[in-house]
Specification:
binds adenosine monophosphate, 32% strand, globular, 182 residues, Rossmann fold
Length: 182
């Protein structure tokens, strides 16, 4: 658990942009947190805390902000990094899964040799909302025989139920701060 003071500090470091990218959405912009040296460092330290000293083989970061956070987490845990990307962006042979967005579906991909059977992997993204994106990543990793040890996000939007959805899939979820609404 974070101290209330640290949670407040991290929350204050995240900028909210109302009605972006469309009316009714409160966009939680973590670039301000990334640009704040102390907040960035403390957020990464807190995210990795439960696994410090444990055996994690790979961090799977979801495009694009999950690459920034996931890279830092991988370094801290001495783990490898695996990019999960929108379709058509990875150069080698890929495995692909469809995932649900707020309106419609899209597809994400991972290199077929990015994880080995039995490897322990943590999924990382900046924010979890409905959980559709993270669920897609979990499906891909499990399809390749990886063990999804956890999923980590800086921001949770609990009213959208994504973290709960992942927990029901048997994935432990770690989030740092929560915001009400969408
Ligand atoms: P979901 O699949 O619904 O959990 O959506 C999560 C993905 O959409 C993450 O990659 C987020 O970066 C992005 N996202 C969804 N809602 C927001 C929001 N309110 N502010 C910032 N990013 C969001």
């Amino acid at each position: 658990m974070l101290t209330p003071a640290l949670e407040a500090e991290l929350k204050a470091a995240i900028r909210t942009i109302p009605d972006y990218p469309k009316p009714g959405i409160m966009f939680r912009d973590i670039t301000t947190l990334l640009g704040n040296p102390r907040a960035f460092r403390r957020a990464i330290d807190e995210l990795v805390h439960p696994w410090a000293g444990g055996k994690i083989d790979k961090i799977a970061g979801i495009e694009a902000r999950g690459f920034i956070i996931g890279g830092a987490v991988a370094h801290q845990l001495s783990a490898g990094f695996v990019p999960i990307r929108k379709k058509g962006k990875l150069p080698h042979t890929t495995v692909r899964v469809a995932y649900s967005l707020e309106y419609g579906i899209d597809e994400m991909e991972m290199h077929e040799d990015a994880v080995a059977k039995g490897e322990r992997v943590i999924v990382v993204d900046d924010l979890i909302a409905t959980g559709g994106t993270a669920e897609g990543a979990v499906t891909l990793l499990r399809q390749m025989g990886a063990e999804v040890a956890a999923a980590c996000f800086m921001v949770d939007l609990p009213e959208l139920g994504g973290a709960e959805k992942l927990r029901k899939l048997g994935v432990p979820v770690r989030t740092l701060v929560s915001f009400e609404g969408h």
